[in-house]
């Protein structure tokens, strides 16, 4: 910066950028509150589903289902995995997208025979640029997750699972912890371990027999499909809230950096301005001194001539 005008233009540019980052911060905050509110309204339904699954296992603990590991404790063969990767549609969200991508690459390294299912434009572009094959890309936006979209995703994943094209299904998403720090997690959703739905000692035992129609296996399978949709919806909302929280943190850091830059530029501007004023005063003082000396010289010449 060589003059006050350039510094002033730079400061105005930073202030204009700061207005944008402030607006993005407020928008992200509003979106996060709305998404969490919608999740809270649907959470009781899926908690009730979990309670019913527990009740089924309390009634018939040895029931067999394709969505669970066998009751004898044996595990299925691990051949092909399916992995749903949830990213954002754009950047400007700190390390949010990079952490999810890094977790997906780690999963591919640990189990190369993994089919990727991607949500979010950022993930689609990353895997395309790095020539990593994607089995299915959900082309709708990752913004404003809905239960309807979660059901569409679960239907496609369950179709691969039912046809035996994948043996396990994982979800890579960003979990928003209580301290508002997002953590990229890889969670297996199929098949489930029965202990995930084990009853607590405090829960009452089933004393009256239940009647399941048409059969207990079909009832359990139907409930589990809804439960998978609920888990995916929760993962979508958690990731979306984590994205907005990361964007809020990034915009807040940008605002703080802008304030720091404005402070430094303000000091530099004042110094340049003071130097300009000092230079002008010096020039005026030197000009006045020269004029005074010139006038005195002319007066002496007039006295000598007389």
CATH class of the largest domain: Alpha Beta
Low-confidence stretches: none
Number of strands: 5
Mean pLDDT: 80
Count of DSSP-assigned helices: 5
Give a short account of the largest sheet. Answer: 5 strands, mixed
Order of strands, main sheet, comes to 3-2-1-4-5
Number of domains: 2
| Helical coverage, percent range | 55-70%
Rg for CA atoms: 34 Å
**How far apart are the termini?**
57 Å
* % residues in beta strands: 5-15%
CATH topology of the largest domain: Pyruvate Kinase, Chain: A, domain 1
Helix and strand run: HEHEHEHEEH
Helix vs. strand class: alpha/beta
How would you characterize the overall build of this protein?
61% of the residues lie in helices and 11% in strands. The protein is built from five helices and five strands; from the N terminus they run H-E-H-E-H-E-H-E-E-H. The two termini are 57 Å apart. Helix 3 links the parallel strand 2 and strand 3 (136-138). A five-stranded mixed β-sheet has the order 3-2-1-4-5, with helices on both faces. With 306 residues, it is of the alpha/beta class. The chain has two domains: 4-15 and 256-305, no CATH class; 27-250, Pyruvate Kinase, Chain: A, domain 1, CATH 3.40.1380.10.
Question: Keywords, please?
Answer:
306 residues; Pyruvate Kinase, Chain: A, domain 1; 2 domains; 5-stranded mixed β-sheet; 61% helix; rod-shaped
Layout of secondary structure:
Blueprint: H1 4-59, E1 81-86, H2 96-110, E2 114-119, H3 121-129, E3 136-138, H4 147-162, E4 168-176, E5 182-190, H5 216-305
Parallel strand pairs: 1-2, 1-4, 2-3
Antiparallel strand pairs: 4-5
